[in-house]
Amino acid sequence: MCKLIVGVKTKGENKKFRDIIAAQYSDLAKERDGMAAVVRVDNETKVWRELRDYHGVAKKVEEDMAQAVLVSLHTRTGTTGSVSEKNTHYFEHDGYVFAHNGWINKYHGNAMAYERYNAKETDFELIFDGKTEAKSYTDCVNVIASCTGCDSAKKGYCKRHQREGRIVKEMEGAAEFYGEGDKMEGIGFKFESGTSAKDKEDITDSERFFRAIPKPFTLEQLEEAVKADEFYGIASIVELSTGRTWLIVNKDAYVIAGDGWAIFTSYEPTLRRKVATYGQAMGVPYLKGEKNTAIQAMPYKLVQGCYELKAQDAA
How far apart are CA 263 and CA 207, in angstroms? Predict the structure, then answer.
């Protein structure tokens, strides 16, 4: 699953803010399908996207960190849409950018495939054989989404939930072979003839949701879209011209806050940072050692809802 960090602060250097952001880089790097950052500095909103050069994005963020009032990073593990720079969150549309950790049931490829081949609840009995409490596709996805082990697992699901994970993977495969049911025999689903999913527009469920939101929008309109489209996860929207920032929270997510700053994360944040010490031998640098240092901070769970963050430009 993707990872999202949104940090806001008053202008000026803040060591703890910088240290907490830096401590997340190793976790961010586990999602390998693209990285983007949004930074608001000197009344300008900067956006960088890279499919592979995560270090380059992080370096640009570090350069602007001291004077930034907004620092946000997103890394992707793709589920709908191809793995490409185009599908790397933050997406841009009508003067706003958007990043999301989670899925949108209305637009998600798995949910759409599930609808196409018209699976019944009894199909899941054939798949699960009574070995899981999940009784439907939605149950299966929710089990994986609510597990912190699945969230950090390379496969996208942990050992305890591998049965649920495998069926989600099978359904992704089913979507790819939509209209070619002979290739998916034995998984308990019926296919209908139609256009291959490969011929559909290459766009993620997150971007479909974002483009459908009216711009500009009110919090009430945002809340309506979240409910109507069955939004799950945490997302950030930034208005490029002003830096106004909104959070949508509909899963377990966290905040660490201090005097004049806050960092919001889609996962329980890492609060240990590896610090390296170096020496030189005849002008050649070498690594003397590394140690993990604890960051004294407390993460708290967010209350679900839609929020606009307080503007920091004037601070």
Answer: 24
CA distance 108 to 51: 22
Neighbours of 208 (CB within 10 A): 18
pLDDT digit string, tens, across residues 161-171: 877 777 666 65
**How many other β-carbons are positioned within 10 Å of the β-carbon of residue 204?**
25
For 237-254, b where at least 16 C-beta lie within 10 A, e where not — what string? bbbbeebbbbbbbbbbbb
Question: Count of CB atoms within 10 A of residue 45's CB?
Answer: 18
**Closest to 174 measured CA to CA, from 193, 187, 157, 162:** 187
- Strands 68-75, 91-93: pairing is unpaired
pTM score of the predicted model: 0.71
CA 186 from chain centre, in angstroms, equals: 33
Q: Per DSSP, what are the bridge partners of residue 7?
A: 71, 263
As a whole number of angstroms, the distance between CA 225 and CA 263 comes to: 25
Q: Where are the alpha helices (DSSP H) in the chain?
A: 15-23, 25-28, 54-64, 109-116, 121-128, 137-145, 148-152, 162-176, 205-212, 219-228
Statement: residue 186 has pLDDT above 60:
no
Among 249, 217, 245, CA closest to 233: 249
